[in-house]
Amino acid sequence: MGRVSRRTRADADFLRELAAAVPPLVERHLATQRDWLPHEFVPWSRGRDFEPDEEWDPGEFPLPEGVRSALFVNLLTEDNLPHYFATITHVFGATEPWTEWSFRWTAEEHRHSIAIRDYLTVTRAVDPVALERARMAQVSGGQVPRPDSPLDGVCYVAMQELATRVAHRNTGTRLDDPVGQRLMKRVAMDENLHYLFYRDLATRARDIDPSRFMVSLDRQVRGFAMPGTGITDFNRHSRAIAREGIYDLAVHHDHVLVPTVERTWEIESLEGLDAEGEQARRRLLDHMARLARLSERLRERRSSRSTRVADQHQDPARA
Ligand SMILES: [Fe+2]
Ligand SMILES: [Fe+2]
How many angstroms separate the alpha carbon of residue 124 from the centre of ligand 2? Predict the structure, then answer.
């Protein structure tokens, strides 16, 4: 993804047309969203002071490496909010009706980092020193996906909110702690509503200009990266998260791309494309087919690995 280019006249016209979809979507969001209080999701009674220079002990909250990495990455991703706010303000502009959404969205997102940080600090699930150093490095680094145009931005955020919902939800289900499960589920519910907002905004964008939509979507699907690439040791954490099955290529394909690109935006049957749009559709369909094959192979490898592990654990006397 390149830097945000200067807004063209076509982008400005497109945004003006798309803006009409915003007020009803904000209204629906506010009517659906259930308010919640972060402090009610934190098990304060399990906490104690950190002594000066106290070493964090992972044994106090035993977790598989991939689950710990997911908590770390999920929180740092939420912590990068100031940069996402800057990006969406640049993409949509700081005027009504866009700010009606972007300000509200920012307030909701901030709640996620408040709640997850408090939970991780109180339970000692993650090293607080490593976490704070990584937060400083990430936010100071300012690495954030920068979509090329408003339309690219809409496509990206729709997929990204869904990806975040899946990542939080899958992380929560791997926690052997009902309090943590409840918190991650609660955050994932917010992400779902953010996803629905952007998903329907993107559908409107598709209807306004199918060809430009296809070109942007193709670019964003092929270049998609979760907004965590600026995180310290991101690749190591991503591999651990993938090994745990919390988020990998197969999850991304099955639970993010298929529901949006194929089922919601129905790119295969979309009509009214010009030559450029048609070319983008062919490229995107090829890419989706390739991802489907890779995901299938990944699933097969995983299930044969888990069968092998299960065999090793079987009691030979009862086998
Ligand atoms: Fe969030
Ligand atoms: Fe979100």
Answer: 25
CA distance 164 to 249: 14
Which residues make up the environment of ion ligand 2, defined by Cβ < 5 Å? 161, 191, 194
Percent of the chain with pLDDT over 90: 82
User: Is residue 125 within 8 Å of residue 68, measured between CB atoms?
Assistant: yes
Cα Rg of the chain (Å, integer): 21
In angstroms, what is the span from residue 164 Cα to ligand 2's centroid? 7
Q: Assess whether pLDDT exceeds 50 at residue 3.
A: no
In the reported structure, the alpha carbon of residue 81 is separated from the centroid of ligand 2 by a whole-number distance in angstroms of 10
pTM, rounded to two decimals: 0.92
Q: What pLDDT is stored for residue 225 in this prediction? A: 79
Q: Give the burial string for 96-114 (b: 16+ CB within 10 Å, else e).
A: ebbebbbeebbebbbbbbe
- The CA distance from 9 to 6, in Å, is 10
Q: How far apart are CA 261 and CA 306, in angstroms?
A: 30
Tell me: cis bond preceding 64? Omega within 30 of 0 counts: no
Detail the DSSP E strand segments found in the chain.
none
The Å distance, Cα 83 to ligand 1 centre, comes to 13
CA of 191 to the centre of ligand 1 (A): 6
Domains and CATH numbers, the chain: 9-44+58-307 (1.10.620.20)
